[in-house]
Write a structure and sequence with these properties.
178 residues, mainly alpha, 6 helices
């Protein structure tokens, strides 16, 4: 036999059913048995509108994180800004260094070695960020990885291409003036 929730409030005047979808509401257990009115909810029960259900019929709620103080919020923002600028600075330095580190490698292997170098350095920044002991709520845990990711990748590639072009400018110009 299916369990039905007891009504938390009396039906609104009008149709008498209390439902807005036009369907009749199934009778409560007490209504079927003796025709008596349902018992009022205990004083400690929360209203149904504030407690989302998890599908099991129980009003389970996810625990809310404690509210952040202004100093905790500013500390978190300061550390995230530090992480962003650390990654931007690393991208510029590593992009320029990749030109010289991988100068002996020829062809496609140079490109893939530089991209692997970029990924390894980024993974290293994730470990550094975890060592910064940022107090992030569980919904913001991915910020450790995503903070400055796009800037890191594009700056690394931009600086690597520009520095490679400037270093090899002479060989490019001699090829044009044949």
């Amino acid at each position: 036999m299916a369990k039905f929730k007891k009504r938390k409030s009396k039906p609104t005047s009008g149709s008498g059913s209390g439902r807005s979808d036009g369907q009749a509401e199934p009778p409560a257990k007490d209504d079927v048995a003796g025709g008596a009115e349902p018992e009022p909810p205990p004083a400690t029960a929360k209203p149904a509108s504030s407690a989302p259900t998890d599908g099991s019929g129980e009003g389970a709620r996810a625990p809310e994180p404690p509210p952040e103080s202004e100093s905790q919020r500013s500390e978190k923002e300061r550390k995230l800004n530090l992480l962003f600028w650390m990654r931007v600075t690393l991208a510029v330095g590593a992009g320029a260094a990749a030109t010289f580190v991988f100068a002996d490698i020829e062809g496609e292997d140079r490109r893939w070695a530089s991209i692997a170098f970029m990924i390894i350095l980024f993974i290293g920044t994730v470990f550094v960020a975890k060592g910064m002991k940022m107090q992030l709520p569980s919904s913001d845990r991915k910020k450790i990885v995503t903070q400055g990711l796009g800037s890191y990748v594009f700056l690394y590639l931009f600086v690597w291409i520009v520095s490679y072009t400037l270093v090899n400018l002479e060989s490019v110009q001699s090829g044009i003036n044949l």
